[in-house]
Amino acid sequence: MRAGTSHFVALALLATLTILVSWPLATHLGDTLPVAANSWLRADIELLVWILSWTSRTIVTAPLEVFEATVFHPAPLALTASENLIGLTPISTPALLASGNPIFTYNFTLLAVTFLTAATAYWAVRDFEDSLLAGVLAGSLLAFDPQLIHQWARLHESAVSLFPLVFMLAFRVARKPGAGNFAALALVTSIQILAGVYLAFILGAFAAGLAPGLIWQARQSGRTGALPLGALLLGTIVPGLVSIPYFTRQSGGTYPELQQAMEIANLYSSAPGESLRALVSGTGMLAAPLALVGLANRQVPAVIRASLLLALGLGVLIAAGPAMTLIPGTEIPGVYWGLASIVPGFSTMRAPSRFLVIGHVCLTLLAGLGVGNMVRLARPHLHPIAQRITGATLLAASVAVILFSQASWPIAVSRVPDGPFFTGAYKWLAENAEDGAVLELPAMQSPLERKRLAQTGRAMRGALLHSLPLINGYSGHPPPTHALLTAWAQRIPQKTALEDFCRYTDLRWLIVHYGMIEGSEPDLDRALRDWGLTQRRRFGRDIIYEMPLACGRNTDELRAYALAPGTQTLQGELMRSLEAEEKRGTIEVALPEAWQGNSVRWVDLTIRNDSAGVWPGMTTDRPHAISIDSRWISDTGVVNPCCSLPMLLGQDLAPGETLTTPFLLYTPVQPGQWTLEIGLTQKGSGWFGDTGGTALLRHSIELFAPGTRSDADGNPPASEVH
Question: Are 438 and 429 in contact (CB under 8 A)?
Fold first, then answer.
């Protein structure tokens, strides 16, 4: 078979497999999304739909403003709250411009990236082995591994489509440097880094694992290894410029501090044993034995095989997270802790297990080399027809493994609602609203609120329709203003909350989803009308209100405060550590004697400042900020670490003043008798009640298993957390 025909057949096979494995998504690109296993994965899909559409459009219409996203308004550099996916715009922008459909854009990009991953792995193997079967198997085992696909919900992690090309081009430059390969390596590196912040760090680790082999290969050719390493570094220049907004935001202290980041990372680490088991599961059950054959492939330079093995080992080592020390049995910080301490932004990775993707890439490339070795050894002993039958059998076995290893196949998809009760408010705003920001109620306080989380995702997609700034938002690293604005949103229709919104944001439109709000619709509607809001349009139980006056005179002040908060609150109170006598206060709340475990529930608090000092609360989440928090203590005196959902105080509370606010509680899973403590905390000095203060409430509550009975007041079970 001619080379051109061989490549065409291979790419056709991989394209067919992409459609098959994603079936039936490929037939409904414009109006369905993959069904996620839980509400958080669904929220991630909604977030990715929004990011991809925002970036794809803005990179063409206003590229210098791409980070000034319109969610989390009026936060500056709002796109730095999450991924930017700029490296995927060569695929997504044409899809969006052609369709105008964010859902189609996401699905098309998802499948295109999957196919591209398979194709580049095919090309990388074909660079060393003249075997169509070897390339196709490597590409399919990598691209369709269920741990990489991750239920089609993690595009920002699965878009490793150029990793195999980085590997292939780097060793080409090391062997026979040329201007074309050098430029291609720099370009491919740059695009892959821009595909995702997480992927940038993972690619860096992948390149570090390959670096010794690149130098070794270059020295065997009489060179120093500077050219491949130089091309890789050259590929970081443009991404380095793109990363400036992230560092600008980090300078404001808005990402987790190192210790907090390491505590989070420990939750999502993968011990070496677990990592190895993960690598040999999924498509790894076939890739792993083939990779062992690949390691014995003497037709491929030993430096290539050793480099892939070294990179795989480095990925497993980093995936172990901060708990793994450099020398077992000692307290010497390990690789992950060292990288988080030295490399700017590395601590935001949150899940060290993400580095296992390096192992998947290396394992499948070695598997491709293994198949190539088997084909070459069998060729002299098998008739051409027998060779074809054997190859077809191996390919069929790989397809069977791929389909068998999927979480579900055909994959479950759900139609995206488009009726007036779902999108009517957003379409009305698109047709009738020219300016002003939008706030949707109820606002999500925590991703544990599944219904509010889902509505926040819909609100972000709705913002793509009306193109107005949206105060709501969801991401893994929300901007510093978000906690403050969310605290205000929970207190609407209180006069002070609406006044604060009007002062510090250009709020004009309020969408109230009455079907999701506890309490009386007439009471809330009357309170909003009394403040002067006008009801403009109703869609089912969704009502659009318009503010009575122009808002936003201090919006720029809040934006500047988010990046450089200084030493005062927004109202000018000094941010400082309070003395014990300044932490006296009372908290009142009505609580039942029994509640459902593993659930979230809102309660109404009344907080009074009984001290002689002002409590600095009108500020973002920063040192000395005061928050309301809760903790659950078991009958043995152990504090359960699961259930803290702090809320900023949200206003400076002077001596004698009171604040009435809803507050979200999350109950532990374990049934039994618990002591609930609700109190105030000051960032940097801890709970008022632990440092000489009195603003602390204790209440004994029995927690019962979800769904078994109502609480002591006869209320139905609260919203269970999954």
Answer: yes
